[in-house]
Amino acid sequence: MGEVSMAFNQQNQTQKLEEDTLMIPLSPASQSFNSPVISFTILSVMELETLLDEFETADIIRNLFLPLNARFSSIIHIDEKGVACWKKVDVRVEDHIVVPIFSKGLSTTQYDENLKEYLAKIASEPLSSSRPLWEIHVVKYPTLYGAGSVVFKISHALGDGYSLISVLFSVFGRADDPSLPLTLPEMSMRVNGGKKSLWSYVSKCINTISDITSSALKGTISKDSKSVIRSGEPNVELEPIAITSISISLEHLKQIKSKVGGSINDVITGVIYYMIHLYMVKTGDISTGKTMNLAMAFNTRMLQGYKSIDQMLKANVWGNHVAVLVVPIPCVSGDQKVDPLYFVTKAKEIMDKKKHSMFAYMSDPINKVLRTLTGTKGVSEFLRASLCNTSATVTSVIGPKEKMTLAGHPIGSINFILAGIPQSLVLTAVSLMGQLKLTATVEKNFIDSKLINSCMKEAFENIFEAACGVRTTS
C-alpha cells in the first residue's frame, strides 16, 4: 500500500512539474498585439487616498496578483517549431517594481503634472522581453485625486481592458463593505427584439457589407485626410506624447441620455465628435470635404450576452477579444452654427447602423481567413494600416460602480491609457465609481493637449446645457 501511495505521489509530482513547465501558444490576437510591426501597452493608473509603499505592493503582487493567471509569471518564448508560447519562469517581484523620484517641495498641482509627464515617458519605453511583460510603478507623491499612485503597466499581449477589469474584481475590495462583491452596470450588447421584417434583414446585410468594405479599405489603400488631429507621419507612435483627461459624472450622462435617447455610449461618442469639431474650429482647420474616421475598439465578449464579470470569468474569456469598427466622424463647417445635440443624434444614428450589422460577429472568422492567407505578420500589418489610415482610436472599459480599495487603501481615481497606437490622437473612456474618465493621449509636438482638454470640457458642458437647459455645477 505504501509503494502504491509513493507511486501515486510521484505521478502527481511529475504531472505538476509538466503543468509548471508546459508552454501555452500565444493566441493569434496576442501575437498581433506584440510583434515587430505593432506593440501595444496598457497603463492602469490608480490614485490612492492613502499612501501605498513598495513593500505592501510586493506582498500584493505575490499573494494576489501572480496567482490570478499563469501569463503574469511567463515570458514569450519561441519553441523549436517557431511557435510563440507562454513559458513559465521564476518571478523576482522586486525586478518589476519601480519607485520614481520627483523633485521635493512641489505643490499638488505640480506633482499631478509630474505624474502625467512620467506616464508619457514610461508609455513609450518597451517592456523587457527577458521578464514577464508587466511592471508596477509606485509613485509616492500627491496628485489631485490622491496621496500617491500605483501604475500597472502591462503588454496588451497579456490581455485587454476587460482582462484587467477581472484583475480589479479579484484584487480590489468594496470600500463600504469588503465582504460584498463589486458589481458592474449592465454589460450585455445583445440586441433583443421581436419579429424582424424583410427590410430589417436586407438593411442588416447592407450594413454588414458596408462595414466589411470600409474595414478592408482602411486596412489597405484608403487613408483619412490629414488634419489637425491626424499628422499622417510614419511611425507616429514613436513621437513624444502628452496625456490629458477630464472626469464626467455618469449621472449627468444619464440625464443627457434620458433627454436625447440612445445609449450612454452614444452620448460619449457625441461628446468626442463635438470635441473634435471644436478643436478643428479653434485651430482653423476646415473639416468640410475631409474624410475622417474613428477606429473604435469593440469588445466581442458582449456579443455573448454576459451580464456580469463572474459570467465572463467562468466562461474563461481572459485574453484579447476585440474587434475594430471603422466609424465615420461627421464633418461640419466651422462657419456653420451647429446645435451641440446634433453630434449626439448623429452618433446614435451611426452607432445604430453599426449595431444593426453582422460585422462584429464576423470579425473573428475574417481574421482567421486573413491569417491563413498572410500569416500573423499579415494580420499585424493590416491592423497597423487600419490604425494609421484612420484619424483617432476610441476604446472604452466599464468598471465597478462602487468605491474600491486596494489592500485597505481607498481609491480616488482609476484611469487607463493605451500606448503604441500609430495615431496622433487616442481616446480612452473608463466608467468607474460613478464617474467617466475621458482621456486623450496626443502627439505632443503636433496636438495642443491643453486645448484638447478645454474642448473636451466645452463639448460636454454645451451638450449638457442643450439637453437639460442648465449648466453643470461641477
Automatic annotation (TrEMBL):
GO biological process terms held by the UniProt record: triglyceride biosynthetic process
Q: Where in the cell is it found?
A: Cell membrane; Endoplasmic reticulum membrane
Q: Which residues form the O-acyltransferase WSD1 C-terminal domain?
A: 318-463
User: Looking at the keywords, is Kinase present?
Assistant: no
Keywords of the record, alphabetical order, are:
Acyltransferase, Endoplasmic reticulum, Transferase
- Domain spans labelled O-acyltransferase WSD1-like N-terminal: 113-268
The UniProt entry lists the main location of this chain as: membrane
Q: Reaction catalysed by this chain?
A: a long chain fatty alcohol + a fatty acyl-CoA = a long-chain alcohol wax ester + CoA; an acyl-CoA + a 1,2-diacyl-sn-glycerol = a triacyl-sn-glycerol + CoA
Q: How does it sit in the membrane?
A: Single-pass membrane protein
Gene Ontology CC annotations of this record: endoplasmic reticulum membrane; plasma membrane
User: Molecular function terms in GO for this entry?
Assistant: diacylglycerol O-acyltransferase activity; long-chain-alcohol O-fatty-acyltransferase activity
Q: In which pathway does it act?
A: Glycerolipid metabolism; triacylglycerol biosynthesis; Lipid metabolism
Similarity annotation: In the N-terminal section; belongs to the long-chain O-acyltransferase family.
Name of the protein this chain belongs to: Uncharacterized protein
Q: What broad taxonomic lineage does this protein's source fall under?
A: Eukaryota, Viridiplantae, Streptophyta, Embryophyta, Tracheophyta
